[in-house]
Amino acid sequence: MSSLSRSTSSPASGNSRSRLFEGSFVGGSSSSSSGGGGSSSRGGNDGGEDEMSLLESQNDSSLNALHQKIRAIKGISINLHDDVNDQNRMLDTMSQSFTSVGDGIKSSTKRIQVMLSTPHGQQTCTMVGLIVLLVVGVWILWAKWSR
Questions:
Q1: Quick check: 20 and 48 in contact, CB under 8 A?
Q2: How buried is 31 (Cβ within 10 angstroms: 0-12 exposed, 13-18 middle, 19+ buried)?
Q3: 28: left (phi over 0), alpha (psi -120 to 50) or beta
Q4: Sorting pLDDT into bands at 50, 70 and 90, what band is 32?
Q5: For residue 121, which of 14, 90, 115, 140 is within the disulfide window of CB 3.0 to 4.6 Å?
Q6: How big is the chain by its Cα radius of gyration, in Å?
Q7: At what angle do helices 11-21 and 42-116 cross, to 10 degrees?
Q8: 62 — pLDDT class (breaks 50, 70, 90)
Q9: pLDDT, tens digit, for every residue of 66-103?
Q10: Angle 42-116/119-145 helices, nearest 10 degrees?
């Protein structure tokens, strides 16, 4: 329970609470007025105290409901924070992977350029390209005939 609800349940605070609300307006009239509309008998104050007790009870239940909603929102925000951190770690890992793949492609491109700059490298590249085309062609023909 909250400290507010603990402090309202102590007997000492009950006296101060009744003193606090003696002069307040309850139900549109002052409970301490000495005019014709107010009641100076003890029975009239009991009704006001019962009403105050009812209002305090309603406040406590509303406070508890609010506390539960705040707890739920806190749980949701903690889960969101954890999910965001997990996604940031995943993005960092992906970024590192893409960087390493990009570096590998750059080095492969440089090696191919060096190889193509020599006459022997051009012949080798042409031969590899023809072999790849031949394999792809055979695979396509085999796929058509096997249906």
A1: no
A2: buried
A3: left
A4: very low
A5: 115
A6: 42
A7: 110
A8: very high
A9: 999 999 999 999 999 999 999 999 999 999 999 999 99
A10: 120
Say how far apart CA 85 and CA 88 lie, in whole Å. Answer: 5
Query: And the tokens for 85?
Result: 């951190």
Q: Which residue has the tokens 């509309």?
A: 37
Residue with tokens 């506390």: 67
Encode the chain in three state secondary structure.
Answer: CCHHHHHHCCHHHHHHHHHHHCCCEECCEECCCCCCCCCCCHHHHHHHHHHHHHHHHHHHHHHHHHHHHHHHHHHHHHHHHHHHHHHHHHHHHHHHHHHHHHHHHHHHHHHHHHHHCCHHHHHHHHHHHHHHHHHHHHHHHHHHHCC
